[in-house]
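PROTEIN DESIGN WORKSHEET
SECTION A - STRUCTURE
LENGTH: 388
TOKENS:
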């Protein structure tokens, strides 16, 4: 299969769509119309390409993990999104969306953030392109990600604490959507993952597929068969995984998305509606959204992008879980073996590879591409706390 646009209504199978209050329908229509026009406009595409290259630092390399590969008996290639400006893949989609917002004549970017990486990327793009920025963030995440909150404020963004519910990303997203309703004339809602009402899941995947497209060409230079046996990425909402998978959907590669055990929307969720789209979501028998947990702030989101729910149903991608303990161990292992301190989110993917090799699920001699979605600086305080 290929990474296609969703159906006219923004459906990936039974997932996706647009479940928003009447007042937001024109805003979603406007974003969809403008995105379709921009995506078909060669001048928009070439401007985005230039911006990704001269400002964000694309293309990112693929780094062979020599020592870890030798120890595990596999070939492990790392797609280095951690090397991008602001430290994660979030900047790919934010720059795309910010250029779109500029084309639409908006003056302010609104965003939600969990780990703070999307908020930092939004604040950065806003500063660079001359937007005002308002970032909604759960109070619990503000405590966990102090450094990123400070970074956003240094970049001139307003960070709005959200005190409702679990005081995490889920609540920040609800608040950002509410705020968008009242400021839609001058504000562009810059969403952080492949989630939200149509066209966001599709649009964000298209902005992130640069990861998979680049990686596919780069892997060909390292691997005898041209494509890896396994393509692995961590999943919060699922944007780095969607972008990575899009480059490999039409290959025989096994696609593996790694969720946090406490936020495993594909593995433990059921079909429901969250933040304007239908997906697999953690909920109780009355449809109340359940609290999710992960040591990584962004991975405690109780839902998943609709395309992932669809790929799971089709059996084209597989979704697995790892727990916090394995994640911290994996982060340290990658650090001492390869000299790379990755984000806790990315360490989920590393943790699964370590376990899958140990349990024989990844056989000796296999080739694995793993997207390192971000760098670990923001997580060092959490790790210091956990090792005390
Ligand atoms: C470094 C990093 N990786 C992964 C994620 C998870 O998001 P997604 O699943 O959309 O890639 C985040 C979210 O903040 C992140 O900061």
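SECTION B - SEQUENCE
RESIDUE ASSIGNMENT:
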């Amino acid at each position: 299969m290929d990474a296609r646009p969703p159906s006219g209504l923004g459906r990936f199978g039974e997932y996706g769509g647009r479940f928003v209050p009447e007042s937001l329908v024109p805003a979603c229509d406007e974003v969809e119309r403008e995105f379709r026009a921009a995506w078909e406009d060669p001048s928009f595409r070439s401007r985005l390409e230039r911006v990704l290259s001269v400002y964000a630092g694309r293309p990112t390399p693929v780094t062979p993990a020599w020592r870890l590969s030798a120890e595990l008996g596999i070939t492990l290639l790392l797609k280095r999104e951690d090397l991008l400006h602001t430290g994660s893949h979030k900047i790919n989609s934010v720059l795309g969306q910010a250029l779109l917002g500029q084309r639409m004549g908006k003056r302010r970017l609104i965003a939600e953030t969990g780990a703070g990486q999307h908020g930092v990327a939004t604040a950065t793009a806003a500063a660079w392109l001359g937007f005002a920025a308002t970032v909604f963030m759960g109070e619990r995440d503000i405590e966990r990600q102090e450094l990123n909150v400070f970074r956003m404020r240094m970049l001139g963004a307003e960070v709005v604490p959200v005190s409702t519910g679990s005081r995490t990303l889920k609540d920040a997203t609800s608040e950002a959507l509410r705020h968008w309703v009242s400021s839609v004339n001058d504000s562009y809602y810059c969403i952080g993952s492949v989630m939200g009402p149509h066209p966001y899941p599709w649009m964000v995947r298209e902005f992130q597929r640069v990861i998979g497209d680049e990686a596919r060409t780069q892997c060909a230079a390292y691997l005898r068969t041209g494509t890896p046996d396994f393509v692995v990425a961590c999943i919060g909402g699922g944007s780095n995984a969607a972008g990575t998978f899009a480059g490999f959907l039409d290959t025989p590669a096994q696609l593996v998305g790694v969720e946090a055990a406490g936020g495993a929307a594909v593995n433990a969720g059921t079909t429901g509606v969250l933040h304007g789209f239908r997906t697999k979501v953690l909920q109780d028998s009355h449809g109340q959204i359940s609290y999710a947990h992960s040591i990584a702030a962004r991975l405690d989101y109780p839902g998943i992008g609709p395309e992932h729910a669809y790929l799971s149903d089709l059996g084209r991608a597989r979704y697995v879980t790892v727990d916090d303990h394995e994640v911290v161990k994996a982060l340290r292992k990658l650090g001492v073996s390869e000299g790379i301190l990755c984000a806790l989110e990315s360490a989920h993917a590393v943790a699964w590879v370590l376990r899958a090799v140990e349990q024989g699920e990844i056989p000796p001699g296999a080739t694995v591409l793993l997207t390192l979605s971000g760098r670990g600086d923001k997580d060092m305080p959490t790790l210091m706390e956990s090792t005390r």
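SECTION C - NOTES
The longest strand covers residues 132-138.
The two ends are 48 Å apart (CA to CA).
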